[in-house]
Design brief:
953 residues; 22-stranded antiparallel barrel; five-stranded mixed β-sheet; 13% helix; mainly beta; elongated; 45% strand
Length: 953
């Protein structure tokens, strides 16, 4: 027995010395620590997980092999010859994360060719090479499926331009910052323009210098993230850099000599002891007005604002609704025409006819004189003056090897100054060209008030030249996240709370309230007693979001994740001062009435479960299910199934997904009401504008409450890397949206002409995304790279009947055909020593509109155009870099044409007079000739030159 025990002791002692300790760190290709990586001694059950800092420690047998695995990353095996083993994991396929960047830049592929879903990754360097001032405009020229619009008409919409993925509207793209939901803007788009009825987060306020990279998921993601992610997700990853602080100074100007831009941005970071880091960004920018008005057609303005038609009976009717002493109230048109024929030739008729003819001559002279001096009618439209201050901070602090605090916060202040349409002296006139004191009881000959000469002149008639109302918007946007991460036995726990908000207040100046309202003494409250500056109110939105996410890589085949989210949202409409809304309200932008103002909120609870299984190293399946319950409209259950299969030595990947999704109606859509109340004799108080779905008027009209949109997404794609330097991806998508929410056309009701939000119909959007990269081609002493990416829309249309008769041709075009039906980006980059040259050609395909007022037999089409951008970077020293960008090098401008829908439309286009009439209708008599009053294709500013200096310290 003693001999047996001695043998066991010797064996145990030998085994003890046969064991050895291996330790190190696991990081990704961006240098970030990876927690929860599974480290297994091959062929055994001996395993550990990396901690919050990516550190690990494991005892293994002599000669053992360690297997490092993490979901979404390539499994790697290492011999244990050294006691210290640091490992860098790459995403599936071994692609460096920094190589997975956008097409048209100096780096390599944009889309990872081996993932289950189409994801674009855009780096900070890629964004800066565009030469664009704001983040949203930079994405416009990097991602074909991403589009953003600068509306032709500026007021509140100048604070935030609509954007979207895959032509689905801004409400269906979810914005995340470091994986956490960003708050929505307070703005609801109500202009008859692309994006009408929608709202979105303000991504233009995020400073580019604070961004490490942007991950754009081009697929439905409601099961993972909840509401709004029908079209995709934009996840903005913030910088963690603690070295290479930088100051960037940028200036620019358009080829027209306006739109001057000056900006300065500071980004820096530092370690916090040896346990954390903090990175911060300060950004200041100012962009001046860039004005692109068209030449005003004098005849059109005369017809709209001055002319009285001498051949129609309505021009001769008295204020008491009599015609030559005959009361025409209740008569048919035929009866009135009979009275009119008998009336002709009378002394009253002759006096009025002479007055009309002379007044038309006088009025036309006034129009011609003003437009000779002011061919653009005094208008200022295109790109408003914008000043912005942005601050952002991002940090982490390790509490222990297994726990960590992380945080980020941002604040943006933006001030936008824009103009309404110029009120010409014949539009808001102080002298009636038809004035005739000898004709009584005829409104056409009345004397006009002359107080405007005191408001907008020096008190003399000659000094009055009209007036130009201004609109100033003040925007405040903030968001902050505080989170806690922990890892225990391989389980990753992430708990966080996020707050965010957006508020907007408006000021209208150089205007008036021209309402004819009198006080108890019969004195005008407004008109000559009107203020010329107004506070129309504003709106705000805020949310608080709590998240708990738990995940674990159970083995090299199975990964699980589950979590929950609780969110509360608050929307406020702030009342304007009384003069801004009383009667007709402030001329150009009326304020929020008391009955339309208020505060509303809701909350929702959600939970999800995610399971991924690698059947083999080539075949992966991932499934997610989510349940979400809203306090105001109910619950939704959605799911997603995605898969990937690699073959041919990982050079070809097939991938696809099918999912369901939902989008909750925003509080803006549920509660917004913008109405003007007026008294009409015999009909009482009437409303003209937008009524909300919970109003008494909506209930009487039978308008149902809003429900969630439901979606079904299908994506199928292929990724290939046939050559070492060549790769491409092709992805087909098909998105069906049921119960799509719209802001419909105005409808005549017993309450006036009103519009409302409604779940109106089902729609389908399908298309193809393509990405190809061929890089690092030796050419002379430099390297050349080519990149081609594109988006093609196959189908974007309504596929079911509409709920109400309030979705006409104008709205149909705005929703489905107002974006380019195809968009392509061809880029090249050549790096030679200290110089980096980039050129991007962006092809904007055809876009189609049906503007309000346009003949139904016509449409307008924006002609396909190519916009070329050139960038030159020069590394003067290791610390100093100069960059010169020319955006729209060839000064290409949007161009549109009338197109006939049928033979009737063709006949209209063959008649120059009718063509001119149609042109005036949709361009406000030429004021918006470049894009039309409701159209947009791409920027109408033309060539923009910019120069920036970047100094690292």
């Amino acid at each position: 027995m003693k001999t047996f025990i001695l043998i066991l002791f010797i064996l145990d002692f030998s085994f003890l010395f046969a064991q050895k300790e291996i330790s190190g760190f696991v990081i990704d290709n961006a240098g970030s620590a990876m927690s929860g990586v599974n480290i297994t001694e091959k062929g055994t059950n001996n395993s550990v997980s990396s901690d919050i800092n990516g550190a690990y420690q494991i005892n293994v047998k002599e000669g053992a092999t360690l297997v490092f695995s993490y979901f979404g990353y390539s499994k790697q095996e290492y011999d244990t010859t050294d006691p210290i083993l640091n490992v860098v994991l790459s995403q599936d396929g071994g692609q460096n994360l920094n190589e997975v960047v956008v097409t048209g830049t100096r780096a390599a592929p944009r889309s990872n060719t081996t993932t289950t879903l189409p994801i674009d990754v855009v780096s900070f360097e890629d964004l800066t090479t565009t030469g664009q001032v704001t983040f949203d405009k930079a994405l416009q020229y990097k991602i074909p499926s991403f589009n953003t619009v600068q509306t032709p008409v500026n007021d509140a919409t100048s604070l935030l331009d609509p954007y979207e993925i895959r032509n689905m509207g801004p409400s269906r793209t979810l914005i995340l910052i470091n994986g956490k939901r960003k708050n929505l803007s307070a703005l609801l788009y109500v202009q008859t323009a692309p994006g009408q009825g929608e709202t979105g987060a303000d991504i233009s306020g995020i400073p580019i210098d604070a961004i490490e990279r942007v991950e754009i998921l081009r697929d439905g993601a409601s099961p993972q993230y909840g509401s709004d992610a029908i079209a995709g997700v934009i996840n903005i990853i913030l910088k963690k850099r603690t070295e290479d602080g930088s100051v960037r100074i940028k200036t620019g100007i358009t080829s027209k000599g306006d739109g001057e831009m000056l900006g300065i941005s500071l980004n820096n970071g530092t370690t916090v002891g040896d346990k954390g880091f903090v990175n911060y960004t300060l950004d200041f920018s100012k962009v001046n007005l860039a004005n692109r008005p068209g030449k005003v057609d004098a005849e059109g303005d005369f017809n709209d604002f001055v002319k009285i038609n001498p051949v129609v009976y309505s021009s001769y009717v008295n204020t008491d609704n009599t015609l030559g002493g005959t009361d025409i109230t209740g008569m048919t048109a035929a009866q009135i025409n009979t009275v009119f024929e008998e009336y002709k030739g009378s002394s009253d008729y002759n006096a009025k006819l002479a007055t009309i003819n002379q007044g038309n001559i006088t009025g036309r002279n006034v129009v011609d004189t003003f437009l000779r001096q002011n061919p653009e009618g005094g208008n200022s439209n295109s790109s408003p003056e914008t000043a912005a201050v942005k601050f952002l901070v991002n940090g982490e602090f390790n509490l222990s090897h297994e726990t960590q605090l992380y945080y980020n916060a941002a604040y943006v202040y933006k001030k936008v100054n824009s103009f309404a349409n110029y009120r010409t002296p014949y539009w808001r006139s102080i002298k009636n060209p038809f004035e005739n004191s000898s004709i009584q009881n005829w409104s056409n000959s009345s004397v006009y008030p002359t107080y405007l000469k005191d408001f907008f002149g020096d008190g003399t008639v000659a000094s009055y030249k009209g007036y130009h109302p201004t609109f100033t918007g003040d925007l405040n946007d903030y968001n902050a996240t505080l989170g806690y991460k922990a890892i225990k036995n391989g389980w990753n726990v992430d708990a966080s709370i996020t707050v965010g908000g957006n508020s907007q207040t408006y000021t209208v100046e150089n205007s008036q309230n021209k309402s004819d309202i009198k006080d108890s003494n019969g004195v005008n409250i407004y008109q000559e007693n009107s203020p010329i500056s107004f506070k129309p109110g504003g709106a705000s939105f805020k949310h608080i979001v709590g998240n708990l996410d738990i995940s674990k890589v159970l083995s090299d085949k199975i990964s699980v994740g589950f979590g929950s989210e609780v969110r509360t949202e608050t929307f406020i409409i702030t009342e304007g001062d009384k003069a801004s809304w009383d009667g007709e309200g402030a001329d150009s932008f009326s304020g929020n009435r008391p009955e339309n103002s208020g505060k509303w909120n809701r909350y929702n609870l959600g939970g999800y479960f995610d399971l991924a299984y690698d059947f083999s190293k080539d075949f992966l399946v991932n499934g997610t299910v989510r349940y979400e319950d809203y306090s105001d409209f109910g619950a939704a259950t959605v799911w997603k199934l995605s898969s990937r299969f690699k073959f041919y030595n990982d050079k070809i990947t097939l991938r696809g997904s099918v999912s369901t999704g939902f989008r909750a109606p925003t509080l803006h859509q549920i509660y917004s009401q913008k109405s003007q109340y007026s008294f009409i004799a015999g009909q009482g108080v009437q409303i003209n504008g937008l009524i909300n779905n919970i109003s008494a008027q909506a209930r009487i009209l039978g308008i149902p409450k809003l429900d969630a949109e439901k979606s079904t997404n299908i994506t199928v794609g292929i990724g290939a890397n046939p050559l070492k330097k060549l790769n491409f991806t092709i992805d087909y998508y098909n998105i069906k949206v049921a119960n799509r929410i719209i802001l419909g056309d105005k409808v005549a009701t017993q309450f006036g002409s009103v519009a409302w939000f409604e779940n109106s119909f089902d729609s389908r959007t399908s298309g193809l995304d393509f990405v190809m990269n061929y890089n690092t081609i030796a050419l002379g002493v430099g390297e050349l790279g080519f990149n081609l990416s594109g988006n093609v829309t196959f189908e974007n249309k309504r596929i079911s009947p509409i709920a109400s008769n309030n979705f006409g041709a104008t709205l149909n075009a705005l929703m489905f055909t107002s974006r380019p039906e195809t968009k392509w980006i061809l880029g090249a980059n050549y790096r030679i020593k200290k110089i980096d040259l980039t050129i991007n050609n962006t092809y904007f395909g055809k876009a189609t509109f049906k503007q309000q007022g346009l003949d139904s037999n016509l449409r307008t089409e924006f002609t396909p155009k190519i916009v070329t951008d050139l960038g030159i970077d020069f590394a003067a020293t290791d610390k100093l870099t100069l960059a010169f960008n020319v955006n729209n090098l060839l000064n290409v401008l949007p161009e549109w044409k009338f197109k006939a829908e049928n033979a009737v439309g063709a006949a209209i286009l063959n008649n120059p007079a009718q063509v001119k009439s149609q042109f005036n209708l949709i361009t406000f008599n030429g004021r918006y000739s470049q894009t039309t009053y409701q159209g947009f294709h791409f920027s109408q500013l033309g060539t923009l030159f910019s120069l920036s200096l970047n100094y690292k310290f």
